[in-house]
Batch of 2 targets.
Target 1
Amino acid sequence: MNKESYRYPKTTSGIKTFNKIVSTGKKLFAKNGYQATSINDIIAKSKIAAGTFYIYFDSKLALYLYILDLYRVSIRKSSADATKGLVHRYDIERAGIKAFITYALKDPLAYRIIWESLFVDFDIFKNYYESFADSYIKHLKDFVSNGELRPDLDLETLSYTLMGISNFVGLQVIFKKDVSEVELDRIIDEAMSILDRGIFVK
């Protein structure tokens, strides 16, 4: 996606410093935005020598892209773990929505970091969601083949619709702040009911 790169350390002390830079960058990008955060800010908050940053990252953009990719990988893993062993698409969608929302509740900076990419570079934002959509489409095709999904559906549109549900139902839950497990399940079941039955009276 971008030529900016990072170098992952091999020593324990190096890994500790690397993770400190990543953690600091994540907090500052989320709080102040990408443009308003400088490398000097990250260096100062990380309490590292000026040259240490460049041992691991070519630039501020390289650090941001690394953090964004961490979210891409970890969100997919949380969904994969939650849906492991499930065979029906309804159950997979429900578990996937809950996994994403639970992830966002545990790491509320995720929304800010991911959506900040829209202001960093539109192509980064576009590629982030297109990669999720491409993966989604591949999985959905199997459930068209086995008869669980309608064959006339445009799977690209469906993938973005499903991602939109996860994203914005996730915001609904986060806005409520202290949501119990019972309330979380009620909200997810409501979203699934809309998926299952639609919203229009025929």
Note: The chain has two domains: 12-62, 67-197.
Target 2
Amino acid sequence: MSRQIRQAKVLSTQQITPHLQRIIIGSDEFKEFSDVSMPNYIGNYIKVLLPKKGQSSLNLNPKTAVMRSYTIRDVDSETGALTLDFVINMHQGPATDWAQTTQKGDSLAIAGPGPKKMDDFSQLHYILLGDLTSVNAIKGYLQQLPIIAKIEAFIHVPSKQDIIDLDTTRDVNWIVTNTPNQTMEIALNDLTITETSPTVFMALEAGLVSQLKTMFAQKYAIPRYNIVASGYWKKGVNSERYKEQRQQQQKNQNS
């Protein structure tokens, strides 16, 4: 990811579903994102730097700022303004609180964009799994994966009102459920796997990611190296604590 920190302002904010707040951010420093020679950033992630609660000034130090990853939904072709969707009314944390209270003109900053989690666009079969935290990452893949590829996309949402337009002609299986650990596995029971193992992308709750990894390995014999997986959040743990757990896990792996 680019380490350049770009200051920005909130251009608009709107609650589009019971659990999604759509926020458009812009800056003169975003102009390069609209350059036709630049990559297609839809589906890439950025680090969003936010003021700490109770503070009006923005700390731009990535080591001390409130910083979270969000996926780019859209890029304005003229100004480079970025559209981001924040999950609300589900998880606790400073980014969620900010998204629900921020107003037009408020300050923030970004770092990035960083690369997509999955970068192999040469396969013939893809299985994409997500929820509201990763719906725009899947949107990016649906727009960029090969036309000839077989793509099976499954996205679970807590209500029908949370189903959003992904600007694609590809079929998407929207699974409305409050019990994704059971429902997602049932939805994946009848996949048809060809001789060539599919590439799987999943970005979900951490426990569900672990469960589905095991299912793909045992039921469909899909090797782990064919699975690109991220636990974007963890049930029962707020965003601050989950961030600390992941940092500690990374330290343990590197020690």
Note: The chain has a mean pLDDT of 88.
